[in-house]
């Protein structure tokens, strides 16, 4: 196992990524994480206290009150793009290994100020060598890894939640746009079907039905 530090937290075209830097290695290990875990990790990194406790704050309180100690966390496996981790805890003089998502494990390691370890075969399989240039990190074999880094000092001066609120709004807007497109497509299909029914009713001189289809078309247009 190799101890690793958090190099940075980033936003990529695929979402949030935490970038781990193993000691004495030229490689870094980027791990995709979800919105809430990213918020918890960044809050710990810059020392910003969120008013309402997040899930990791609650786990931290439970451990503290139940005399459970987090010794370290281990990222011990990876399959395709899915990483696996374990929490190593001490309770009643016994070491216990608990399966965890890496994002949760990393967030808790920051809360408890405990080491993060990565198995060497995970680094070998998923580690990448990067050349940094502004907001573009280029893999040396030519594969680009584009990201937007967080500036910790800037976030300290404002609020660690701003970037996450912005990201959440963007995701909500994307969902709303997609729903609007689906609704528009459905309306278009309905209009086409109603127009066919209206034409057929007029052709067959079923004027009462034609009037009803016309009213439904007018409602769709509105």
Q: What report would you give on this structure?
A:
- With 222 residues, the chain is α+β, with helices and mostly antiparallel strands.
- Helix content is 47%, strand content 32%.
- Strands 1, 2, 3, 4, 5, 6, 7, 8, 9, 10 and 11 form an eleven-stranded mixed β-sheet that branches.
- About 7% of the residues have low confidence.
Describe the secondary structure blueprint for this structure:
Elements: E1 2-12, E2 15-22, E3 27-33, H1 35-46, H2 55-65, E4 69-79, E5 82-91, E6 94-100, H3 102-112, E7 116-118, H4 120-126, E8 128-133, E9 136-139, E10 144-146, E11 148-149, H5 152-157, H6 162-203, H7 207-221
Parallel strand pairs: 4-7
Antiparallel strand pairs: 1-2, 1-7, 1-11, 2-3, 3-8, 4-5, 5-6, 8-9, 9-10
Helix pairs in contact: 1-3, 2-3, 6-7
Characteristic key phrases:
single chain; 222 residues; alpha+beta; 11-stranded mixed sheet; 7 helices; 32% strand; elongated
Structural category: alpha+beta
| Helix and strand element order | EEEHHEEEHEHEEEEHHH
Count every beta strand, where a strand is a DSSP E run of 2 or more residues. 11
Cα Rg:
26 Å
Spatial shape: elongated
Helix-residue proportion: 40-55%
Biggest pleated-sheet summary: 11 strands, mixed
Number of helices: 7
Percentage of residues in DSSP E strands: 25-35%
User: Uncertain segments of ≥5 residues (pLDDT<50)?
Assistant: 138-145, 155-161
Average residue pLDDT: 77
| Straight-line N-to-C gap | 64 Å
